[in-house]
Design a protein that fits this description.
This is Rhamnogalacturonan acetylesterase. Belongs to the 'GDSL' lipolytic enzyme family. Keywords: Hydrolase, Signal. GO terms for molecular function: hydrolase activity. This protein is an alpha/beta fold and about 280 residues long. It has one domain: 3-Layer(aba) Sandwich (Rossmann fold), CATH 3.40.50.1110. It contains ten helices and seven strands. It has helices at about 1-10, 10-20, 80-85, 90-95, 140-150, 180-190, 200-215, 215-220, 230-245, 260-265, and strands at about 35-40, 70-75, 100-105, 130, 135, 155-160, 195-200. The protein binds 2-acetamido-2-deoxy-beta-D-glucopyranose (NAG) (6 copies). One 2-acetamido-2-deoxy-beta-D-glucopyranose (NAG) binds next to loops. One 2-acetamido-2-deoxy-beta-D-glucopyranose (NAG) binds near residues 50, 51 and 224.
């Protein structure tokens, strides 16, 4: 009786209760779902390194229903953490993101500069470039960007760089670059998961998949050089990122369409051991 009178008093409620079901909007961008912003270089960017290669970021969307999360691939070829910062690309993401969004940051391929020699040769990661900018270290750029995103109540995934072709020299061989360690360090110094910052050992997962695929397939999918992947391998590299997510603790994994058991297998392999100094 009380409910009935409530309904009678509130035509809007009555109307809402009887309005027809909305058609499914699964193929339409939904501004109310979280956006997963990707910041990175050509290995992740639309069009990859050109000449028919592709960035893995283009395939990440297939692991999320558009009604659950959207991917904005803002990775840009040729960029380092420093030039991405300097060109305002992190700022563009920061100004567009909303609470609950995720930002995946993955650099390293373009970040190795001249090693420090002295005040004039090499930049030591902190010397002044006269009149242009103050150069920071790689972890500093990552942390500065991450703090901007955290301030806006987004969460951050710091992801380690993809491998160069691990079959390049005949047999399989993968050694993480120093920037993998720096990425881990940046996540650790930011406070890790308790502060909304997660590390994905993407390079390790991608290398594992490339090991499983074998030399012939992997060589054929580095058509240009040892850095840029053909579409097939870019898709595998995206899936290896997703497995890395699923093997961690970040809430982003809950939005993934596939169960971990569907991802683990002959190609992607299984979860890998991590350095327990930093929970991921
Ligand atoms: C890539 O494509 C450009 C033009 O599209 C061509 O000039 C260049 O030689 C190609 N590079 C390689 C390595 O195939
Ligand atoms: C990604 O976001 C930027 C900034 O809002 C926008 O300019 C760009 O068109 C978006 N890209 C896609 C593929 O949605
Ligand atoms: C810096 O190192 C370079 C290369 O070794 C050398 O030529 C130059 O004289 C050094 N400059 C100073 C100020 O020490
Ligand atoms: C590759 O591995 C095989 C088997 O372990 C070995 O016989 C061969 O010498 C290795 N080749 C290179 C280039 O390391
Ligand atoms: C998840 O499943 C979808 C649809 O079944 C598939 O297209 C996609 O490649 C899968 N993603 C991964 C990361 O395996
Ligand atoms: C984890 O990383 C820290 C920092 O680099 C290092 O000191 C420690 O030895 C590592 N632990 C393992 C088990 O690799």
């Amino acid at each position: 009786m009380q409910l009935l009178s409530l309904l009678l008093l509130s035509p809007a409620l009555v109307k809402a209760a009887h309005s027809p079901r909305q058609p499914s909007c699964d193929n339409q961008p939904n501004p109310r779902v979280p956006t997963i912003w990707l910041a990175g270089d050509s290995t992740e960017a639309p069009g990859g390194g050109g000449n028919g290669t592709e960035g893995w970021g283009q395939y990440l969307q297939y692991s999320f229903l558009p009604s659950v999360a959207l991917v904005n691939n803002s990775a840009f070829a040729g960029r380092s953490a420093r030039t991405f910062t300097r060109e305002g690309r992190f700022d563009i993401i920061a100004s567009n993101l909303k609470e609950g969004d995720w930002v995946v940051i993955e650099f390293g391929h373009n970040d190795g500069g001249t090693p420090p020699v002295n005040a004039t040769v090499g930049d030591k990661g902190r010397a002044d470039c006269p009149g242009v900018e103050i150069v920071q270290t790689y972890p500093t750029y990552l942390q500065n960007a991450a703090r901007k995103f955290l301030e806006k109540k987004a969460k951050v995934v710091l992801s380690s760089m993809t491998p160069t072709n691990p079959w390049e020299f005949g047999n399989y061989s993968y050694k993480p670059s120093i920037f993998t360690y720096y990425t881990w360090l940046a996540a650790s110094e930011l406070g890790g998961p308790s502060k909304g910052v997660y590390f994905v050992s993407h390079g390790q997962y991608a290398a594992q998949a490339m090991k499983n695929l074998g030399k012939e397939t992997v060589d054929a999918n580095y058509p240009l050089d040892h850095t840029h992947t053909a579409p097939f391998l870019a898709d595998v590299v995206a899936q290896s990122f997703v497995l890395g997510l699923k093997c961690g603790t970040g809430g982003l994994q809950d939005l993934v369409v596939n169960a971990t058991s569907r991802l683990q297998g002959a190609v992607l392999g299984t979860c890998v051991a991590v350095n327990e100094t930093l929970p991921i």
